[in-house]
Design brief:
This protein is of the alpha+beta class and 122 residues long. It has three helices and five strands; from the N terminus they run αβββααββ. It has a single domain, classed as Trna Endonuclease, Chain: A, domain 1. It is globular.
Length: 122
């Protein structure tokens, strides 16, 4: 991938994450972290609403279908490991329910929020 194409993809990804944060806030979530990194992986958005903590993966692609297909089983496992790491680093959140969501962002479409996109122990 060329440097220009990579930069364009990064810009698109940051824009998509910003749009998804706005949607989450409108839905009553409080964003705890963006682009949170651990040695075992990265989580695009971590948000909380009440007694629920949500680990969100954002995928921006040409179509919603392509965005959904871009979340692989391997990536889900990496996100779950990072979520466990996050929860270990924040013991005050230990009693909260956890959910894994995906936002799919396609050109000229509003972000689609898929709640409970997969089940996994965090």
């Amino acid at each position: 991938m060329s440097l220009a194409r990579r930069r364009r993809a990064q810009r698109t990804g940051r824009w998509a994450e910003t749009a998804c944060v706005a949607v989450l806030r409108l839905k009553g979530y409080r964003v705890l972290a963006r682009r949170w990194r651990a040695p075992v992986g990265e989580i695009d958005i971590i948000a909380r609403r009440g007694r629920l903590i949500v680990f969100v993966e954002v995928k921006a692609r040409a179509s919603r279908r392509a965005a959904l297909e871009a979340v692989s089983t391997r990536q889900r496992a990496r996100i779950a490991r990072a979520a466990a790491w996050f929860l270990q680093s924040r013991p005050e959140l230990a009693g909260l329910a956890c959910r894994f969501d995906v936002f799919v962002v396609a050109k000229r479409r509003l972000p689609a929020h898929i709640q409970g996109a997969w089940e996994q122990e965090a």
